[in-house]
Amino acid sequence: MRPASDGALLRLCALWLACAATGSLAGSAEAPSSARLSVRRALVVAFNGSDAPGMEPLRYADDDGVRWAETLRRLGVDVVLLTVPDADTAKVERPLLTDVRAPTLEALDEAVATLARRNSADRAAGQEVDFLFIYVGHGRTDESSRAYLTLADGRLDQESLYSRVVERLDADYVHLLVDACHAAGVVGSRGGDPLVLTRLRRALEQEQLAGHPRVGAIFAESNEGETHEWSRIRAGVFSHAARSALLGGADVNHDGFVEYSELDAFVAAAIRGVKSPQARLAVRTFPPTLSPSRPLIGHPPEGPRLNLPASPGGARISVEDASGVRLADAHQAAGETLELALPEREVYWLRTPRGEARVRRADLSADTPPHFTTPEVAQRGATEESLLQGLFALPFGRDFYEGYVTSSGITAVDFSGPVLSAEPSRVPRSLGLEVGFTLSTAPLGGTGVARGLALSWRLPGPGLVRWGVRVSYAMAPNAWMDNASLQRVSALAVGGLSGRGNLAPFAEVGAGWLMLVVDRSNSRQGDAAGFTARSAAGLRWRPGDFGLRAGLSVDLDAAREDGRRRARLSPGLELGLER
């Protein structure tokens, strides 16, 4: 593909944002609940062909279009699909292509008019409308450096995009998802010049800040500025991952809705394990600034669902139908449930790295786990191998999500709402328990080192807050006069902040009861009514079900000594194992 000239593709996508926001999206910001009840519609345009001499057509844009339409309909979205299926797709997907038209200019006009009438009727009845425009195909620039998207009999350039599509939608929010450009080889490319995409990304950010708050955009790129097709899944890698996210793989807070940040983090986790620079992607999301938590998809209607209960090891899983069509992929995190809404089929194949199983639709929710047999795997080159081994290799769950949104600075979902799940978790994600080994200076100003154990129980509060209780016991042998040993027992209420992600800092304070004992060979005395305050800070590392906490602490002990209450500081350190 010839690199786009200066700013041409930039202007096209910027116009998307400007037109959708200023042409038809008047109205005030919604309450959070209104987005949950919003009517959702979509126009999917997918075209393999190119109008540029010598440019190879895409292989799977038509397949992606069919999968997008089927996925969105399963999720309760009113969809119109425009595509030209190739011979293989027409044969395999015949039941889904009954009312599909070619993506011509005339068909585009009629589809937009039909959807706009429905949008207007719903808005007149007091309902809000979210509109998804999805394009899969070639993006090009003409001889005058004007950017356009390729249709079957023409081009959708800046002017026609405004006049034919965006200006006429009459929706409250517009969500743009673009998976575009050219293809090559077993893993083909849909991409362009990396400099153009870098400038496009900046322009999208600037357009969002310039006063177009009701439009969101999503696209992907690799280190080479491209996205990819993969013959094994007969789809674009980005489109497949995004569909898997919307089917429930990205619903990290289990509220039945998928927001921009969830899709962003899910795709990031899915591609994190891909090592080949030719195959790695990065998703770029720009949620509407007026409502950064605006859901892309609502709670799916009744239909087939795959419910995986929580398990200690999690599961990497792919779902295919009897024809080998890949429907969804996910990597369930340890200790967390996974629910995927699946397109309607009589039979599904569930595949993991360790085996595969045939499951009838009626048995999806059965209590008995399917019987997995050894799979057959064919290797298809270096890039194919990288995708096969790396795609969806990393588990996606709350830990990854919280770390990702914190590092990215994007708006996180709410975890305080009700969880919508067909089956409660059998294995708690975290028990909040920690057993720690402690070292500190001896109490009462004694000599030597006090060694001990601590048991803590912490519960999550709002945001980064954690609170709970901590009990500890420590002993310093021969640390007092006449070789007396010192024993220290405490019970505290604690509270503090803990960062998100696999590796995160923490800080906490606490206060409570203290008992100090001086233990001699022939006598024992002490104070059982002391007071102690504590502060601690350190790092928490949790790669899986268990985590490690390492921190430095300072205890302020107040106890009676020789008839008077004295306060002493006691610095220390602690290494703990948490579950």
Number of helices: 11
Helix content: 10-25%
**Major beta-sheet overview:** 8 strands, antiparallel, barrel
| Arithmetic mean pLDDT | 78
Computed CA radius of gyration, to the nearest angstrom:
29 Å
**Helix- and strand-based class?**
alpha+beta
Number of strands: 28
The shape is elongated
Distance between the termini: 52 Å
Q: What is the percentage of strand-forming residues?
A: 35-45%
Physical arrangement of strands within the biggest beta sheet: 21-22-23-24-25-26-27-28
Provide the low-confidence segments as ranges. 1-6, 12-32, 182-201, 206-210, 223-227, 377-387, 421-429
Describe the protein in words.
The protein has 579 residues and is an alpha+beta fold. It is 22% helix and 38% strand. The chain has an eight-stranded antiparallel beta barrel. It has a six-stranded mixed sheet with strand order 2-1-3-7-9-13, with helices on both faces. Strands 17-16-19-20 form a four-stranded antiparallel sheet. Helix 1 packs parallel to helix 7, helix 3 packs parallel to helix 8 and helix 9 (260-272) crosses helix 11 (398-408). It is elongated. It starts with 7 loop residues before the first helix and ends with a strand. The model is unreliable at 1-6, 12-32, 182-201, 206-210, 223-227, 377-387 and 421-429 (pLDDT under 50).
